[in-house]
Each structure stands twice: as C-alpha cells, then as structure tokens.
Amino acid sequence: MKPTIDIVIPSYNAEWLLEKNLPVVLKTSPEVDRIIVVDDGGTDNALEYLKKWASKVICVRHERNIGFSKSVNEGVSHSKADFLVFINNDVYPKPGYIRSALKYFQDPKVFAVNFNEENSSWPQVSWHSGKFQFVRGEDKKHPHFSAWPSGGSCILRRSIWDKLGGFNEIYSPAYWEDIDIGWRAWRSGYKIVWAPEPKVVHHHESTFGLKNKQYMDLVKQKNELLFTWQNISDSKMLISHFGFLVINSLRHLGYLKVIFTALKDYLSQGEKYNLSISDTEVFHLVNTPYED
Predict the structure, then answer these.
(1) 62 within 8 A of 40, measured Cβ to Cβ
(2) Per the confidence metrics, is the pTM higher than 0.90?
C-alpha cells in the first residue's frame, strides 16, 4: 500500500520566503498528501498568502512565537501520515527528492533520511576536549550514516518519531533538538542515513536573524550542555566534560551564566536517558559509510 506523506514547514515572519519556497515545494513533492505550515506567531501577512494554497496547505497559527522545536512538534500533531518531511522555508527541493529517499526505508530500523544539501554534508562526530564535536564529512558521492536527522531537510518514519517522543522541548526555542533525537534514536537501535540522491538547495535566509543575537548565542551554548547532560552516559566522557566546564569557566567567567541557565532548565525539565546502546558504540556507528 502506498505510504502517506506530509510536509511540515515551520515559519516565522517569513511571507517573503514562503512566496519563493512554497511553489517549489508543491511542484517537486507530488507524493505528498498535505503540507502543514506552522505560522509561529508572525506579524506579517503570511496567513493571508497561505489562503492562496488552501486546497493543498494547512496553516497552524500561533498567537505568539514559541520557537522551532515546539512548532515542529505542533505541526506533526496535525498529521497522521506514515512519513514526515521536514523542510525549512529557505530550503528548495529538487525533483525526485522524496522518491529517491524512500528506498532507504526498506530497512525497518531506518528512522530518518537526510537530504543532500548543496553546500552541506553528513556530520563526522567525535568526543574530545570534554565535549561533543562535529565537522562536515568529505565524501558526498556515497550514502553515509548520520548522527542526527536534519531538522530542516529530512524525511522520517512517523512510528519511530512517536516512540522517541518527538523533539524534546527543553531545547526551545531552537538548536540541538535534532542532535538530541538523533542520539536517542541511535542509542535505541535505530539508524539515520545521509543520502546523496535526494537533493535540495538551502539558501540560508532563515528568520532566526530577527531574534536577539546575544540571547540566541546563550540558548545555543545552554542547549549544548543540556544535550550532554541528558544523553551522554559514558563515565570517561562525563569526567572530561566536567574538566571542560571548570577550565572554560576559569577562562571565560561569563560562561558561568551558561552553566547556571542550563542547570536551571535541567533541574526543572531535564531527563537522563538510560538507553541500551553505549555512547562509544554510537560514535563508531555514525562515522561509518551506510550499509543496507
């Protein structure tokens, strides 16, 4: 039976992006049943523009801005599809991108497939200097395992998304929520693939720039700590992480604000994941070429 597929597009004050993005998404996504645009408390005329596509697009409207991770979760809650495509409003898919990605889901353990962004790649991840680190992988000719699903450029299996509980909203408004769900997926025995065939172009015109830069820098650093505290269980890694916190705080006294902000969120909302596959094994798995 043909699988059902919905697209989720979070958007904030970005009518100008939707005017460019949405027609391309509609044209290149014939397999899709519905497109769900989450208008995250914007003050522009996006809602009026989306009425033009009322027969094909559902608009979920927030009265106030609640951020990326919550918006994506909200969009997914309005879908009953077997597969979900996450596309940012500044990402432009190439024809055949969904069809070429679906073949990887023949393996029931595959949770998500990342699209091949023109100027990006799969992440090569490591643990050193007391923290989780990553750089772009070099080989883009062949499929490769990926540590996480790209929050703005992927397709994923709904049933596994539900088992994992979606994005952890402790990371609101944004950053590290996709890395978090990816690590939880791998440690739960699932797989994530970066594929060369499904191609998209990412113009990097995100409206995150509308938010206060100093605040977003704090959020990014805070969420990095929350990811570590919730996901990393290896004792040697945690000892080295404690050393990183001490050294970084001595070098940059302002970093104490990051630590205390993260600690406040962790104590009130955090959860330590105890999953079956070790961090060491996941670091090995995600850095290997894809094998079906």
Answers:
(1) yes
(2) yes
Q: Supply the range of the domain harboring residue 97.
A: 5-209
Residues 273 and 233 in one domain: yes
pLDDT along the chain (292 residues), means of 10: 95 92 96 96 90 91 92 97 97 98 98 95 96 94 97 97 98 96 98 98 73 89 98 98 97 96 98 95 96 80
Dihedral sign of CA atoms 279, 280, 286, 291 in order: negative
* Chain position carrying tokens 């990006």: 120
What CATH number does the domain containing 60 carry? 3.90.550.10
Query: 195 and 221 share a domain?
Result: no
Are both 126 and 45 inside the same structural domain?
yes
In a domain, 291, yes or no: no
Alpha-carbon span 111 to 156, nearest angstrom: 6
Cα separation, 223 vs 249, whole angstroms: 17
Asked if residue 202 lies in contact with residue 118, where contact means CB atoms within 8 angstroms, the answer is yes
Buried b (16+ CB within 10 A) or exposed e, 200-235: bbbeeebbeeeeeeeeeebbebbbbbbbbbbbbebe
Distance CA 271, CA 170 (A): 10
Q: How many domains does the chain have?
A: 2
Degrees to nearest 5, angle at CA 178 with 168 and 135: 145
Per DSSP bridges, beta strands 5-11 and 83-87 are parallel
Half-sphere exposure of 241 (CA within 13 A, CB side): 20
- Show Cβ contacts of residue 72 under 8 Å, excluding neighbours closer than 6 positions: 8, 10, 38, 86, 151, 166, 167
Burial class (CB in 10 A: 0-12, 13-18, 19+), 63: exposed
